[in-house]
Design goal:
CATH class of chain A: Mainly Beta
Order of helices and strands of chain B: HHHHHHHHHHHEEHHHHH
Number of helices of chain B: 16
Distance between the termini of chain B: 58 Å
CATH architecture of the domain at 63-197 and 343-381 in chain B: Orthogonal Bundle
Strand order of the largest sheet of chain B: 1-2
Number of strands of chain B: 2
Oligomer: heterodimer
Strand order of the largest sheet of chain A: 3-9-8-5-6
CATH superfamily of chain A: Cupredoxins -  blue copper proteins
CATH topology of chain A: Immunoglobulin-like
Shape of chain B: globular
Number of helices of chain A: 1
CATH superfamily of the domain at 63-197 and 343-381 in chain B: Cytochrome c-like domain
Strand content of chain B: under 5%
Shape of chain A: globular
Bound molecules: copper (II) ion
Helix content of chain B: 25-40%
Radius of gyration of chain B: 23 Å
Strand content of chain A: 35-45%
Largest interface: A-B, 16 and 21 residues
């Protein structure tokens, strides 16, 4: 019984592990490469700063708040979206840089 | 829905704006990374007016909401002592500022920063000099509750407005089935604010192809703005702002956006780039009101600003000649629009039924109004505090 449960759990983890995808969004010319994106719960988005200036990635959507601080040129920062909902993400330095993520 | 439908006032001016809008020119890129060699004609394409005023999905435009917001914006009963309205500081006669270096709030409390305009905030992103609010809706409730500004108890504002019969029906019209609530107050005010859009300026006519609309000095000023003086690095697009935050090296100790983004060096002393639309009407300038004239502003940029780690990489000593400075100012003068005149609205009258004034001034006292001492009645009429008994 114990064994079966462990296997089931492991299977469950593997399944969700296999489903959780990683998406890449580029920050270029003071814009995110996408304006909108639909991702699955548990997916990770990798924000890559391909600009020559510092950016930031944050959200103040309720229930989904995060802030990745200063993001130097050439660096990347990852965030995992663990709850469903509409998450408005932007750069706190250049707030015209916006992307809306639909987490389903 | 056309813009003319959406906008309750200034409909004519905005229709002109659409007609002026050259098709296909709307997809302007950010100015910062432009190739150095751009002709005047290329630059002009970056300044074309948008054809629509954006309203958010969460709070779409309706005429009833905008009309209600117009009244609320001008209504001093939104403040704790019922004498300060949004328009006291955001005065349409001063292009929606107050003409002061820094303004005054409740009981003449001096404010820490200069009152910015609300002109074209529909096109903005984050609100306040330091960007601490995410939207106009969120912003609207800030000053009402702020002790230094309007000093309003948010719990009682709904009661106070309910005591004004006219507002009950206006809210029911604008928000069917919901009526007077704090979020609806914010939504109505934000909708009104989004209708405050600058009119077609001589500059817009020139962008649209009328070579006679502005003089040669202003045209030279435009070239300087986009090249040698590098103003466009921050004041980009038709609204002459990138909506971003920069330290331009003013020497006060307000850290601006640095208080919100503590760990980002370039955000220390950074403030939101203001629009330059109608800028001649809004002296004195900057978040601290420290520069009295546009000439002082140009001199500040010419000097390159105070050197410190946070100073924007786009700030350099410019070495402008006297003529070049004059040309830049001539250019900025062409941004003064033929703005629609905003009427001072007729506000819903105070209730005249017995004790109604008491309920309005002090909702708690109003309910037991019959027992209030004559001293307290007089005190409250003069908006002085009074403890019953
Ligand atoms: Cu950025």
């Amino acid at each position: 019984m114990k064994f079966a449960l462990a296997t089931l759990l492991a299977a469950g983890f593997m399944a969700s592990g296999a489903l959780a995808a990683e998406h890449t969004v580029s920050q270029e010319r003071k814009k995110f490469s996408e304006r909108k994106m639909t991702i699955a719960v548990g997916d990770t988005v990798n924000f890559v700063n391909n600009d020559k200036i510092t950016h930031n990635v944050y959200s103040s959507s309720s229930g989904h708040k995060f802030d990745m601080g200063a993001q130097a040129p050439g660096t990347a920062a990852k965030h995992t979206f663990s709850k469903p909902g509409k998450v408005k993400v932007r750069c706190a330095i250049h707030p015209k840089m916006k992307i809306t993520l639909k987490v389903e | 829905m056309t813009v003319a439908d959406r906008i309750t006032r200034g409909a004519a001016a905005l229709t002109v704006a659409i007609l002026l809008n050259a098709p296909g020119a709307a997809s302007a890129t950010t100015a910062g990374e432009k190739a150095v060699e751009m002709s005047r004609q290329d630059w002009k394409a970056e300044y074309v007016r948008p054809s629509e005023v954006p309203f958010p999905e969460e709070n779409p435009y309706t005429r009833d909401k905008a009309d209600l917001g117009h009244k609320l914006f001008f209504d001093p009963r939104l403040s704790g002592a019922n004498y300060i309205s949004c328009a006291t500081c955001h005065n349409p006669s001063f292009s929606w500022g107050d003409g002061l270096p820094t303004g005054f709030g409740h009981k003449m409390t001096p404010l820490g920063r200069r009152t910015p305009t609300i002109l074209n905030t529909a096109f903005g992103e984050l609100m306040m000099w330091d960007g601490r609010f995410d939207s106009l809706e969120q912003q609207a409730l800030g000053p009402m509750a702020a002790a230094a500004e309007m000093n309003q108890q948010m719990e009682s504002i709904v009661e106070e407005l309910k005591a004004v019969p006219g507002y009950v029906s206006l809210f029911n019209l604008a928000f069917p089935g919901e009526g007077i609530t704090v979020p609806n107050i914010a939504k109505a005010i934000a909708t009104f604010e989004r209708t405050v859009v600058s009119g077609v300026a001589p500059f817009d006519l020139w962008i649209a192809g009328d070579e006679t609309a502005i003089g040669d000095a202003a045209k030279r000023g435009f070239d300087l703005f986009n090249n040698k003086a590098n103003c466009v690095a921050c004041h980009s697009g038709w609204n002459l702002t990138d909506d971003s935050f920069h330290d331009i090296g003013l020497s006060d100790d307000d850290i601006g956006r640095g208080a919100v983004l503590k760990t980002i060096v370039k955000m220390q002393h950074a403030f939101k780039t203001p629009t330059l639309r109608n800028v001649v009407s809004r002296a004195p300038y900057m978040h601290d009101g420290s520069l009295a004239t546009l000439a002082d502003v140009i001199d500040h940029y010419d000097g390159g600003g105070k050197q410190r780690p946070s100073l924007s990489d786009d700030m350099h000593a410019l070495k402008l000649t006297a003529d070049e400075k004059a040309d830049l100012i001539a250019f900025m003068r062409t941004l003064d629009g033929n703005d629609p005149v905003v009427a001072v609205p007729v506000l819903p009258a105070n209730d005249q039924s017995p004790n109604a004034w008491l309920r309005r001034v002090s909702p708690a006292a109003g309910s037991g109004g019959g027992e209030v001492s004559p001293e307290c009645r007089v005190a409250r009429l003069h908006l002085r505090p009074c403890t019953p008994e």
